[in-house]
Design a protein that fits this description.
The structure holds two protein chains of two kinds. By secondary structure, chain A is mainly alpha-helical. Chain A contains eight helices and two strands; from the N terminus they run H-E-E-H-H-H-H-H-H-H. By secondary structure, chain B is mainly α. Chains A and B meet through strand 2, helix 2, helix 3, helix 4 and helix 6 of A and helix 1 of B.
C-alpha cells in the first residue's frame, strides 16, 4: 500500500472477498477460482490422505488412539446413513463420509485469520488475493450439491427405471389423472430445482456470513488499541460459536446428501 | 457470486474423492471394524460358554463329592460292622477254645484222679490183704479170694 493512502473498510473487505480468478480462454464463465480449487483439493488430499494413512495401518485387534478416532468418525457417519437409508450402503456411506470430512475441513479454514493468510503467505509470494474458505465460494457448494443432485437422478432412474422415473414426474404427488400431469410436473420441477439450491445456498450463506463477520470484527483493530482488544474479544466469541456452525453445517450438508439419495431410492 | 469453471473443477475433485473414499478408505476400515466386532462377539460367546461349562462342572463335582462321601460313609459303616463281627467271632471262638481246653483239662484231671484212685485202691487192697495175711499168718490164695478182694476194692 502506498504511504498516505488510506485503506477504507469497504476496500479492506472487498480485498478479502476477491477470488484469485484466472481466465481460461475467453474469461467470464471460462475462468477458474484458483484459490478455491487449490485449497479444496489440498484439503481433500490432507483429509483423505490422513484417513488412508490410518486405514492402511488399521488393525482388527485393539485399535490405537488415531484409529479409534477415525473409527469414531466413520461409525458416526455410518450410523447416520443407517438411520435414513435402508439399502446397500456400499456407496452411500462413503459418499456421506466424503461429504462430511471434506466440508468440515473446508469450513474449518475459516478459523485461520484471513489476514494471516494474506499477509503471511499470499503477499510474501507476490500474490494479491486468496480466499481460503472454499465453501464460502458458491461454485464449491453448487459443485457438491449438483453432484449429489446428479446422483439423485441417477439413482431415481436406476431404481425405478427410466419409465418409472418419468411416470413419477407426471403422476406424483397428486395422482395419475391426465388433467393433473401438468401440475404434477410443475411440482416436481420445483422440487428438483429447490433441492440443489437450498442444499448449496445454505452452506454457502453460512460460511460467507461467517467470513464477513470475522472481517467486520477485524475492522475494530483499525479504531484504537482499546478497539483492537474489544475486537479480539468479539472475534474469540464468534470463533467459538463458529465451531458449532462449521460442524453443524457440514453435518446438515451430509444429512441432506443422504436424505436426497435415499429419497431417490423410494418409489412414491 | 459468479458461477464459472471452478464448479466443474470442484465437482471433478469431489468425484475423485468419493471414488477414493469408497475404494480405499471405507471397505478396509469396515472390514477391520467388522472383524473386530466378530472377535468380540466370539469372545463373549466363548466366555458365556466357559461360564456354563464351569457351572456344569461345579454341579458335577458336587455330585461326585456327595457320591464319594456317601460311598466312604458306606465303606466305614461296613468296615465297622465287619470289625464288630470279627471281634465277636474271635471272642466266641476264644471262649469256645477256652471251654474246650478247660473241658480237656478237667477230663484229664478226672482220669488222673481215677487212675490215682485205682492205684490207691490196689495198694489199699494189697495192704489189706497183706495185713490180713499177717493177721492170719498164712497166705491167702488170690484166686480163691479174688471175688472177696474185688468186692472190697469196690467198696473203697
Amino acid at each position: 500500500m502506498e504511504p498516505g493512502t488510506e485503506l477504507t473498510p469497504t476496500e479492506y473487505i472487498t480485498h478479502h472477498l476477491t477470488f484469485l480468478t484466472k481466465p481460461i480462454g475467453d474469461g467470464g464463465f471460462w475462468s477458474i477460482n484458483v484459490d478455491t480449487v487449490v485449497t479444496a483439493v489440498l484439503l481433500g488430499f490432507v483429509g483423505f490422505g490422513f484417513l488412508w494413512w490410518v486405514v492402511r495401518g488399521a488393525t482388527s485387534g485393539v485399535p490405537g488412539k488415531r484409529q479409534a478416532f477415525v473409527e469414531l468418525c466413520v461409525d458416526f457417519v455410518d450410523e447416520q446413513v443407517k438411520g435414513i437409508f435402508h439399502g446397500d450402503r456400499k456407496f452411500v456411506a462413503p459418499l456421506a463420509l466424503t461429504v462430511f470430512v471434506w466440508v468440515v475441513l473446508m469450513n474449518a479454514m475459516d478459523f485461520i485469520p484471513a489476514d494471516l493468510i494474506d499477509k503471511g503467505v499470499v503477499s510474501p509470494v507476490g500474490g494479491h488475493f486468496w480466499r481460503a474458505v472454499p465453501t464460502a465460494d458458491v461454485n464449491t457448494t453448487f459443485a457438491l450439491a449438483l453432484s449429489v443432485w446428479t446422483l439423485m437422478i441417477f439413482y431415481s432412474i436406476k431404481v425405478k427405471g427410466l419409465g418409472g422415473w418419468i411416470h413419477e414426474l407426471f403422476c406424483t404427488p397428486f395422482g395419475s389423472n391426465p388433467l393433473l400431469w401438468v401440475f404434477n410436473f410443475l411440482f416436481n420441477l420445483v422440487e428438483y430445482l429447490s433441492k440443489p439450491l437450498s442444499h448449496s445456498l445454505r452452506l454457502y450463506g453460512n460460511m460467507y456470513a461467517g467470513e464477513i463477520i470475522f472481517l467486520l470484527l477485524a475492522l475494530w483493530a483499525a479504531t484504537s488499541w482499546a478497539g483492537a482488544i474489544f475486537g479480539v474479544v468479539l472475534t474469540v466469541g464468534w470463533e467459538i460459536f463458529h465451531v458449532l456452525i462449521v460442524l453443524l453445517q457440514a453435518y446438515i450438508f451430509m444429512m441432506l446428501t443422504i436424505v436426497y439419495v435415499s429419497m431417490a431410492h423410494e418409489s412414491h | 457470486m459468479n458461477i464459472n469453471l471452478t464448479l466443474f473443477a470442484v465437482a471433478a475433485a469431489f468425484a475423485l474423492f468419493i471414488w477414493f473414499t469408497a475404494v480405499f478408505i471405507w471397505p478396509p476400515l469396515m472390514r477391520a471394524i467388522e472383524s473386530r466386532q466378530k472377535n468380540i462377539a466370539d469372545g463373549l460367546a466363548a466366555g458365556e460358554r466357559g461360564k456354563q461349562d464351569l457351572a456344569q462342572a461345579e454341579t458335577r463335582v458336587t455330585a461326585l463329592v456327595n457320591e464319594a462321601k456317601a460311598r466312604a460313609a458306606e465303606i466305614v459303616a461296613l468296615a465297622e460292622k465287619q470289625r464288630n463281627a470279627t471281634i465277636d467271632k474271635s471272642k466266641s471262638e476264644a471262649l469256645a477254645e477256652a471251654a474246650k481246653v478247660t473241658q480237656a483239662k478237667l477230663a484229664e484231671l478226672e482220669q488222673e484222679i481215677a487212675r490215682a484212685k485205682e492205684v490207691l485202691r490196689n495198694q489199699v487192697a494189697d495192704l489189706a490183704v497183706r495185713g490180713a495175711e499177717k493177721i492170719l499168718s498164712r497166705e491167702i490164695n488170690p484166686q480163691v479170694h479174688a471175688e472177696l478182694l474185688n468186692k472190697l476194692k469196690a467198696e473203697l
